[in-house]
Amino acid sequence: MIPPDGSWLPAVVVLAVTVAAAAQVLSGMGFALVAGPLLVLALGTSDGVRLSVAMSMVLNVVLLAGSHRLVRWGDAARLFVPAALLVTPTFLLTAHLAGAWISAAAGAAVLVGVGLIASGRRARWVDGPAGPVAAGAGSGVLNVLAGVSGPPVALFVAHRGWAPRVGTATLQAYALPLNAVTLAVLGLPAAQPGQLLGAAVGLLLGTGAAWPLRRRISAAGVRVLVLALATAGALLLLARAAGELL
C-alpha cells in the first residue's frame, strides 16, 4: 500500500533521476523521456516539469564538457531559434489549463515522441530548410508541456546520419540553452528540499554508474530500455489524468 503522507516521493525522485541520467549517459538521449513522466507523476505537473528541465540542464553541461569539439554549432543554432521562440507562447497558452489536461497532453506527447523515434521512419522534407524549423518548434512546445525536448530533434539528427558522438554532442549544445530559456519562463522548481536532494543524488548516482560503461554497452540496447520506460511513464500520466477527469 502506498503511504498517504507522500513519504515515498523522495524515493521515486531518486529512482527516476538515477535511471534517466544513466540512460542519457549511455545512449545520448532519454533523460527527460524517462524522468519527465515520473517526476510529473510524483511532484505534479508544474514542479515535475521544472525539476526535469533543471536536471536536464545540469546533465547537458556535464556531457557537453567532454564533447564540445564535436558539436555542429550551425545545426544546433538552427534548431534552437524556433524552439526558443515558442517557449513563452506555449507557456501562456497552457498556464490556465487544468493540471489533468496538461498531464494528458504531456503523456500523449511522450507517446508520440517514442513512436517517432522507435519507428525509424524518414521523411525527405526533414533534410530541407523546413527540417530544423519543424523539429525545433515541436521540441520547444514539448519542453514546456512535459520537459521533453528530445523526440523531434532526435528524429532530425537521425535523418542527418551523423556519427553517434556527433549527434549526442550537438543535441547537448542545442538542449542546454533551450532548457535555460524554458526554466527562465517556467521558474525554478519549488520542490521540497528532500526532493531536490533526491534529484541531485539520483543525478550523481546515475551519471557515476553509467560513465565507465558508456563505451561498453550498446547504445541501441539502452535506447530500447529508454523507450520502454518512457512508454510506461506516459501511460501512468494518462491513467492519472483520466482518473482526475472522470
pLDDT < 50 stretches: none
CA radius of gyration is 17 Å
- What is the CA-CA span between the terminal residues? 23 Å
Tell me the series of helices and strands, N- to C-terminal.
HHHHHHHHHH
Average residue-wise pLDDT: 80
For the biggest sheet, the summary is: none
Q: Which class of secondary structure composition applies to the elements?
A: mainly alpha
Strand fraction equals: under 5%
User: How many DSSP helices?
Assistant: 10
Oligomer: single chain
Q: Per the principal axes of the C-alpha atoms, what is the gross shape?
A: globular
Keywords: Cell membrane, Membrane, Transmembrane, Transmembrane helix
GO cellular component, one term: plasma membrane
Main location: membrane
Family: Belongs to the 4-toluene sulfonate uptake permease (TSUP) (TC 2.A.102) family.
Q: In words, what does this structure look like?
A:
The chain crosses the membrane at residues 12-44, 51-70, 76-93, 100-120, 140-159, 196-213, 220-242. It is found in: Cell membrane; Membrane. It comes from Kineococcus xinjiangensis. This is Probable membrane transporter protein. With 246 residues, this protein is mainly α. It is 78% helix and 0% strand. The protein contains 10 helices and no strands. The longest helix has 27 residues, at 219-245.
